[in-house]
Amino acid sequence: MKKVLFSLLAVTGMLLASSDNAKAQAQQGIKIGVFDIEIMMQVMPEYRRVDSLVRQYEQDTLGAEYRDYQSEYQRLDSIYKKDSAAGKSKSVLDMQRQQMQSVAMNLVYWQQIAQNKSDQKRAVLAQPLYEKVVAAYKKVLDTKKYTLILKPNTFEAGTTVDNIFELVAKEMKIPLPRELGGGMEEELAPKPAQGVKPAGK
User: Fold this and answer.
1) Its domain of life (predicted)?
2) Which of 71, 122, 171, 175 could form a disulfide with 136 if both were Cys (CB 3.0 to 4.6 A apart)?
3) Do the beta carbons of residue 37 and residue 134 sit within 8 Å?
4) Dihedrals φ, ψ of 112, to 5°?
5) DSSP letter for each residue of 144-198
6) Domain ranges, ordered by start, for the chain
């Protein structure tokens, strides 16, 4: 009986302690912010250069690679037809057919292959920007002590959230588009002096 009573007291004590912790956390409040590293990276002025280099890579390198696959397929096809008409052995024709199928697979799935290569190139070129954003983001999080960070469009209207885009942009000293909170363009732009005339000679 003493053991049961002691157990009940222990459980009651733990429940009260956890209830006090929950109340303390509720009083402090949950601090929620909204942010996305990828979006922040894309609004950086330097990201335009990444976009430009990726487009150039797609046109020059990937375009040339696709043309190479096309000409290689045509070359293999004509060799196969010629060797087939000449009565070459089955093993030679099978090997040529395999080579053609390999090249044909690259042509059939070229959109996906090109997209993957383009994404990899973009990731490599944008890595320094990513590191800058992450450093500023961590600095903001360390200072502001957020409990929860959500991506845009993952919360209901009416939910109170802080716009971390503004804080990170301020930390990085870059302008922020209006759709992400904007307003920094005016702060960063040099303001002309009003009512001051240049001194005459």
Assistant:
1) Bacteria
2) 171
3) yes
4) -70, -45
5) H--SEEE-TTSS-TT---EEHHHHHHHHHT----GGGT--HHHHHSPPPPSS-PP
6) 31-179
Extract the tokens encoding 139: 């600095």
Q: Which letter does DSSP use for residue 59 in this model? A: I
Q: Does this model's pTM top 0.70?
A: no
Give the CA dihedral 8, 14, 18, 23, nearest 10 degrees.
70
**Cα torsion angle, 128, 132, 133, 138, sign:** positive
Q: To which residue do tokens 């157990």 refer? A: 7
Strand order in the sheet with 32-34: 148-150, 32-34, 162-163
89: Cα separation from own chain's centroid: 52
Beta strand 162-163 with 32-34 is parallel
**Greatest Cα pair distance in the chain:** 104
In whole angstroms, what is the distance from residue 169 CA to residue 32 CA? 18
C-alpha 150: how far from its chain's center?
A: 15
Rounded CA gap, 118 and 63, in Å? Answer: 11
Per-residue tens of pLDDT for the chain, all 201 residues: 555 444 544 444 454 444 444 444 444 678 889 999 999 999 999 999 999 999 999 999 999 999 999 999 999 999 999 999 998 899 999 999 999 999 999 999 999 999 999 999 999 999 999 999 999 999 999 998 888 998 988 877 666 788 899 999 999 999 988 888 876 444 444 444 444 444 444
